[in-house]
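so my prof wants the structure for this chain in the tokens format not the other one, which i didnt know existed until like an hour ago. anyway here's the sequence
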Amino acid sequence: MKSPAPHRWGDARPAAEDTALLRDGLHSTRLLLLKTLLTRAERETVSPRAIRAFRDHWSLLERAEAHDPGAARETLGYPAVGAWLVAALDAFEPEAFEAALSDLGAVAATAASRAGLESDATLPVRHGALTLPGLGGGVTSAPAIHVRVTHEGPRLRAERRPGEAEGADGSCGWRPLSGLPGGVGVLDDRDPYLCAGGDLAGFSPVHLRTSRETRPWLEVWEAALGLLRETDPERAAEVAGLVRALVPVVREEAAGPVSATCWSAPWAVLTTLPGTAEEMAEVLVHEVQHSKLAVLGDLVTLHHGDREAVYSVGWRTDPRPLGAMLQGAYAHLALADLWGRIAARDGVPARSRRTARLRCAEYREQVADALTLLLGSDQLTSEGREFVEGMRRRHGRLGPRSTPITDEPLSKDNVG
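here's what i got, hopefully its the right format
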């Protein structure tokens, strides 16, 4: 796989070549985690039933990959699969490890469904539900669900309990996920792994039960993507092509949109419901930058920062370790670039242009202070210093810190 060029990545601008590299890098990481899980499952003491089921599911995944490599790759690249792999490898109690191993069945069934490979699998139900990552979920009181994959997609039937009569209800309340208009992702309010990260304290999942509840999320996504296409086509293409899951969440006492990225599940955007296209565009650009750096961090070591040395940053009240400061500065650099482009559009009302310029200036100031701290740190690797130099050059193209805030359009040269 081609190695990333840190200085170009630090520029924080989208590029098709970089997007392809990110996808390749993420796939390599997922394969490594999957093989590590297989090795651990074979070496550790697990019940004969659990290891037998795991091997069956592994075989189904291999057959799906042989039938359609792209479908298997797409399945493994789904954010919830990364979160599941990390959770499984972090499970040390035997019962928890066996339960996590059983979820390979849902991954394999999803790959088979995407590949159009006819197959059968019986998967355990946990907490009354079964989720096929990126496809949807079924709700039932049964202990297991039989999944029959056909060319038309997955068909689910609840398994009878021991002693249950033949005529017992075998239905399973299956609900497919809604696709994000104009993108490759889905609105995922079903998968439990997407809100399971330990660094997502305070977020609770939102389950959308009706089309009326789903509609506002799809509408604000579509409006934000339209704004990005009008303002920054390259950024719009990046967002549309990389975001695999938009995950509705709530957070107590949240003032305005609050969003997050789980490092084990890049390309999933967890967010409360934004009220405007501009707010959603901010969320999407912000979290995509976090996902990009999460994937890049598995390919290149940018720093040797620890959590003991902390720094004050303009976007948080609590001091941040160097890695978190780099993440925040990278995201805010893209937001400064975004607002500069919004302000540079032709025909923008004076009040809206001034607001956009103020947002651009605010993010630009925050990044300037962070860059000073980052470049003065001895915790950056040589690749990390190249990366931050790329950020510094992009920041310089946004204009000097003393640029006045007026109602006049920004020069397009400063945001090119």
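also thought this was worth mentioning. DSSP finds 13 helices and 14 strands in the chain.
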